[in-house]
Recover the amino acids of this structure.
């Protein structure tokens, strides 16, 4: 292939990317519920800084673009936040590190990736406006399941390194679902009212939940289920309270 041909292909890929990214920007700004009204060829070309005819180098119609756009937005490989989940198992903690500090750092970094990820914002808007669209539902469902699978694999690798495992009835799959759902809900809350969430909230919650849903491997003193652990904790507190009350009566 000639140098000119290579340059043309590179420019073609760049223009396609710019038009798809323009679609995400327009979708995030729109208050209208129909993609075909928001992502018009003229609006996309103007936002991408390209001539309108460039659009037709990649898609024969607006309908073709919309199908490609939905695939683009729901592709895990095109999102820095989804890629981070896929790489959790590759970023193993150092055994000598403080596990509390490590968990807080990971929670903060992951949450920051989501906040700064324009693809994630587009996914939220896409779902809000087109939840009944079969293609949107199927693509987002597959994406969320992929994210959960990657998260579960990463958490298992970290748990094995730290000598902990899920506390029944939790599994790594349900723990992944818990933390991913928590993050998604917090992101929506932040979008509506960022001032109501303390700066360390996501780290505090991740640490507290991680402690609650895991236990030490092969430790008979920490073998109880979540229900058993809760009962023991409450029973212990009731006993302490009763002993304190008896002591107060004796002193009186």
């Amino acid at each position: 292939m000639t140098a000119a041909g290579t340059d043309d292909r590179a420019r073609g890929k760049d223009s396609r990317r710019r038009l798809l990214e323009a679609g995400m920007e327009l979708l995030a700004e729109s208050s209208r519920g129909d993609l075909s009204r928001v992502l018009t060829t003229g609006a996309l070309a103007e936002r991408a800084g390209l001539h309108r005819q460039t659009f037709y180098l990649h898609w024969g119609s607006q309908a073709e673009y919309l199908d490609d756009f939905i695939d683009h937005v729901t592709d895990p490989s095109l999102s820095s936040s989804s890629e981070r989940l896929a790489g959790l198992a590759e970023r193993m903690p150092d055994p000598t590190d403080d596990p509390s500090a490590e968990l807080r750092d990971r929670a903060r970094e992951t949450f920051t990736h989501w906040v700064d990820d324009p693809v994630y914002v587009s996914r939220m808007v896409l779902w809000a406006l087109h939840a009944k669209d079969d293609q949107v539902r199927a693509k987002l469902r597959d994406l969320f399941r992929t994210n959960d699978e990657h998260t579960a694999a990463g958490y298992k690798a970290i748990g094995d390194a730290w000598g902990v495992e899920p506390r029944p009835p939790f599994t790594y799959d349900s723990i992944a679902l818990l933390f991913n759902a928590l993050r998604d809900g917090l992101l929506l809350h932040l979008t509506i009212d960022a001032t109501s969430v303390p700066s360390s909230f996501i780290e505090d919650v991740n640490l507290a939940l991680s402690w609650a849903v895991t236990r030490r491997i092969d430790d008979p003193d920490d073998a109880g289920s979540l229900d058993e652990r809760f009962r023991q904790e409450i029973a212990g507190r009731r006993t302490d309270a009763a002993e304190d009350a008896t002591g107060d009566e004796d002193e009186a």
Remarks:
- The longest strand covers residues 164-166.
- The mean pLDDT is 85.
- The domain at 77-218 is CATH 1.10.357 (Tetracycline Repressor; domain 2).
- The radius of gyration is 25 Å.
